[in-house]
């Protein structure tokens, strides 16, 4: 479980393409300081398992399903990535509940800078739009953000200077893909309401 509070901006140092998967080597001094084999680290919002680690780098295998459902397949040597270790039990939940299970990808549509923040517009897949509401939470490339406006096929977020400086959203440009994870609570509520409605229908 993660919180969407990025710990550091890491870097891809090697990419090995396998038959139906990819192996990434990533540099992240903060997230590797206590890393062990089998630990989880979120990379651009995708929960990956540490396979090997040494110095300030770690490797992680990414299966075809993850490559197809996320933007990790677009990473190359030199790509910057958001890194976060799992939340420790009893620690503060600084963002919101993030599973590291990407629901789909969006695309940066436009950026509107202002004096103290920047508004970023992101495309939204049709099957995810029902989970995104104004002032609700969404995870973009592993970053916990508050939705400013929510449309049928887009949403906007406002980014403070710290977010721009310390995450990939300071680097992404229109046309670039981003990983999206909607609020898991919304999905559970939908499922429970749907099951209840089916039960009531059967009772009649």
Describe the structure.
By secondary structure, this protein is an alpha+beta fold. It is 16% helix and 40% strand. The chain has three helices and twelve strands, in the order βββββαββββββαβα. The chain has a six-stranded antiparallel β-barrel with strand order 1-2-5-4-3-6. A hairpin with a 3-residue loop joins strand 10 and strand 11. The longest helix is centred in the last third of the chain and has 20 residues. It starts with 7 loop residues before the first strand and ends with a helix.
Strand % is 35-45%
The rounded Rg comes to: 18 Å
Number of strand segments: 12
- N/C terminus separation: 40 Å
Q: Looking across the biggest beta sheet, what order are the strands in?
A: 1-2-5-4-3-6
Low-confidence stretches: none
- Structural class call reads alpha+beta
* N-to-C order of helices and strands: EEEEEHEEEEEEHEH
User: What's the helical proportion of residues?
Assistant: 10-25%
- The backbone outline, from C-alpha atoms, is globular
Overall average pLDDT? 91
How would a textbook summarize the main sheet?
A: 6 strands, antiparallel, barrel
**What is the helix tally?**
3
Structure summary:
The protein has 204 residues and is an alpha+beta fold. It is built from three helices and twelve strands.
Give the helices and strands, then pairings.
Blueprint (H helix, E strand, L loop, with lengths): L7 E10 L3 E7 L12 E4 L2 E9 L2 E7 H6 L10 E5 L19 E10 L4 E6 L13 E4 L2 E8 L3 E6 L1 H6 L10 E6 L1 H20 L1
Antiparallel strand pairs: 1-2, 1-6, 2-5, 3-4, 3-6, 4-5, 7-8, 7-12, 8-11, 9-10, 9-12, 10-11
């Amino acid at each position: 479980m993660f919180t969407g509070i990025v710990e550091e901006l890491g870097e891809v140092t090697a990419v090995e393409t396998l038959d139906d998967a990819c192996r990434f080597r990533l540099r992240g001094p903060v997230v590797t300081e206590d890393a062990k084999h089998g630990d989880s680290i979120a990379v651009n919002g995708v929960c990956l398992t540490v396979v090997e680690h040494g110095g300030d780098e770690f490797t992680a295998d990414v299966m075809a399903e993850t490559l197809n459902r996320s933007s990790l397949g677009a990473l190359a040597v030199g790509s910057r990535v958001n890194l976060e270790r799992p939340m420790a039990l009893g620690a503060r939940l600084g963002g919101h509940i993030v599973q590291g299970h990407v629901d789909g990808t969006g695309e940066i549509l436009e950026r509107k800078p202002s004096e103290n923040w920047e508004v970023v517009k992101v495309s939204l897949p049709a099957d995810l739009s029902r989970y995104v509401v104004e002032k609700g939470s969404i995870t973009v490339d592993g970053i916990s953000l508050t939705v400013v406006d929510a449309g049928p096929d887009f949403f906007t977020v406002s980014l403070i200077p710290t977010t721009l400086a310390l995450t990939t959203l300071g680097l992404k440009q229109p046309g670039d893909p981003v990983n999206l994870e909607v609020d898991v609570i919304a999905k559970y509520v939908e499922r429970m309401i749907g099951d209840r409605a089916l039960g009531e229908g059967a009772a009649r």
